[in-house]
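Entry 14. Ran structure prediction on the chain below.
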Amino acid sequence: MMKQSKFLLMTLLTTLVLSACGGNPDDALPGDTSTDPIAPFIGSWESECYSDNGASARLYADFSKVSPTGFTGKITGFAYAGTSCSGPSVKNKDVLTNMSMAIAGTKTVEGVQATLFNGTSDQGVGKTILYSAGSTLKVGDDKSAKDAAGYPSAFYTYTFNRR
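Output, structure tokens:
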């Protein structure tokens, strides 16, 4: 009986500790209805759910407008027990923090007019491409070949959706 009680107590404590490590994404930020070039990217986004070996994960991005051509924001990853990205997360990790992004132009990528961005974050300096089609956001694949100016030449296969 004593061993069973200790096991139950340890299981409960482990569950509480894991729950405390995670959390849920912040409340969704509003979009931007202006005609500014940055408007399609502003607001909160969530990636598709990825599952592997009985666990799952999802990225959340929050972008706030700072000018007609710039935004600040963060991207956070959340891990879940189970394969459906539901319930409280058991762990979260900041992927990009204190992002500051500025539009640098446009180019055609995979048949769509992508917007070029130069940016900085706590994790470094970089260039990427984004494409927004209403409620869907495509992000440049930083592992793809780069063009002469250093921008990705392809999008990741996954997409983000507005929250």
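The longest strand covers residues 91-109. Will compare against last week's run tomorrow.
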